[in-house]
Amino acid sequence: SSRSSGAPGSGRIIVVSNRIPKGDVPAGGLVFAIDEVLTAAGGLWIGAADPTEFALEGLTEIGSGAYDRATFAITEAEHSGYYLGYANSVLWPLFHHRPDLLNFHDGDFEAYAAVNRRVARAIAAIAEPEDLIWIQDYHFLMVAQELRQLNVTNRIGLFLHIPFPSPTDVMALPQVAALSSWIAAHDVFGLQTKRDVTSANEMLRHDSKASLMPNGRWHRAGHQFQILSFPIGIDAVGFEETAKAADVPQLQLAAKAPLLIGVDRLDYSKGLVHRFKAFGDYLSRRTEGAPRPTFLQIAPVSREDVTAYQDIREELEQAAGSINGAHADLDWTPIRYVRRHFDRAVIAGLYRRADAALVTPLADGMNLVAKEFVAAQDPDDPGVLILSHFAGAAEQMEDALLVNPFDHGSFADAIDRALHMPLAERQERHAALRVSVFEEDIAWWTEAFLKRLRGTNRT
Ligand code: ADQ
């Protein structure tokens, strides 16, 4: 159904994400990737303004240049219901296999729906028929459906950065009956892994209105849509350059002391308590006189206003204290737990300096730290990546030391193996990991998604 002024999808790209940089775009991370895409293709980036007392309709321009940036308004009450509530106390725990942490509050879903509706109205008011609409993440699962109700026929894609819930867990969502219609309103619903696609397909199989066609596309209520995996990557070349050039901060480690590193937002999905305990198990088994390892865990707090995040913080501090209490000596602190934020260059330099990385989430859409760590290594003398089976990254990174983070004994074995791995095996594993990190990088991801979205046909 081509229109007068060009085929659908040949126009601007309109990106929607909850977070939008208000000033300079920080190097690295998703916001950096979006900046790159829009700088090359032109378009508009829409994100949430800081909460205020009243929320006006429409968009406020906050910058223009190679592309435009604009914000939509949300009220303080909506921030609490939409962001802290439905997005981060319902969708986040559920999609990370933690239905036990679900926290339903009256009005939270209504706030989420209201914000999604306002975003949809703002987009509908400015979208040209050829524009591609690319929605980011779990904050906006209802925007596409709202757009369709406003008769917007543009190509609409969503990329979910977090895992898709299992068919059983998803039943804990009060809005589960509506979820498949939210998904079906997109042309392309993108997920991180094949495992996620399987879960989403499984859920849709229970929707009597949806049918999977022989070409692999879904059909529902007169429309076609696709559920596909696009594993997100990093700017591998840029990250490697940064790591090579980085000045490694003075760590004051004893000579020959092995360094293990972990870098995560402080989140219960990242498996930090299990990680600390597995490291504690490793220390308990360490033979007297063996080098004394240091585990540097960098974990800045996030979402401090959500109770589950306060709880995990306390639990982690307790675990660190008790392990250090049991093993520390006058000149040795086994766990260094740092809550600060650092420049990417510092993080990159620390990765390069480390002998092993512990990337061991209990659930994670992808986990970019695993990829950053590989990109940062010196190929001649690389560190070892210890990676959880439950990180989306495990699907592409089979040459890491894959671990089950719940099983502290085998996890401790993996730490031991990493710290004693012969150079030839380290090089071999790293070389294999490096191929996927550099080939399936952030540019590859963006291109793969946009190519699908452009090439799709809804009817
Ligand atoms: P996150 O849950 O935020 O992202 P992740 O993919 O690990 O998780 O990205 C974190 C980023 O923040 C990394 O680039 C890391 O270097 C950086 N970072 C963390 N702590 C830092 C600190 N103290 N100082 C500086 N930088 C720090 C979500 C999903 C993931 C998915 C991404 C992208 O939960 O599974 O990989 O989106 O899709």
TrEMBL record:
Annotated EC: 2.4.1.15
Keywords: Glycosyltransferase, Transferase
GO molecular function: alpha,alpha-trehalose-phosphate synthase (UDP-forming) activity
Sequence intervals crossing the membrane: none
Presence of keyword Iron-sulfur: no
Signal peptide start-end: none
CDD domains linked to this entry: GT20_TPS
Protein name: Alpha,alpha-trehalose-phosphate synthase [UDP-forming]
